[in-house]
Amino acid sequence: VMVNPMHVNRTKELDDNLQTKNDKKDARVIASLIRDGRFTFSRILTGVEAELRNGASLRSKLQEDITAIKNRMIRWIDLYFPEFQHLFKSFGKNACAVLEMTPLPMDFDGKSEEELIQLYKNVEGLKCLSVSKIQKLKVLT
């Protein structure tokens, strides 16, 4: 069986209202709670339920990692390529292609729009970045 730790704490406070804490006192309080029937049966998850719990915790961890990576990317973009934020609001395919192939504003120097289009076509999963976006990027940098 399981006893809620908050119940143990509150019951201990009701019994003697002292701030002291030791294992003997906790054991006595837990035993009295079990004797009074204030406990729950522990439930060990198996099968699909266990997999769902593991999947949910993995998803939560992945979301935290993605957020941390995005924050790092935003920090570096703010330091080295602040114009980027004016054109791309999120990290979509186009934005990631620009960061992959031309991560710094100086990468645009001396390159024509056609060269940049060819450069961005090499990115897997991207058809083509629009000419207007490329022109805006060149103007901003």
Describe this structure as you would to a colleague.
The chain has 141 residues and is mainly alpha-helical. It contains seven helices and no strands. It folds into three domains: 5-35, no CATH class; 45-80; 83-141, no CATH class. It has helices spanning 5-16, 23-35, 48-80, 84-87, 93-101, 113-121, 131-140. The protein is elongated and about 80 Å long. The termini are far apart.
Q: Overall 3D geometry?
A: elongated
Biggest β-sheet description: none
Estimated structural class: mainly alpha
Low-confidence stretches: none
For the terminal residues, how far apart are their CA atoms? Answer: 65 Å
Helix content: 55-70%
Quaternary structure of the protein: single chain
Assess the beta-strand content as a share of residues. Answer: under 5%
Cα Rg: 29 Å
Number of domains: 3
Taking all residues together, what is the mean pLDDT?
84
Total number of helices: 7
The beta-strand count equals 0
How would you spell out the order of helices and strands? HHHHHHH
SSE topology:
Layout: H1 5-16, H2 23-35, H3 48-80, H4 84-87, H5 93-101, H6 113-121, H7 131-140
Short description:
With 141 residues, the chain is an all-alpha fold.
Descriptive terms for the model:
141 residues, 64% helix, 7 helices, 3 domains, mainly alpha, single chain
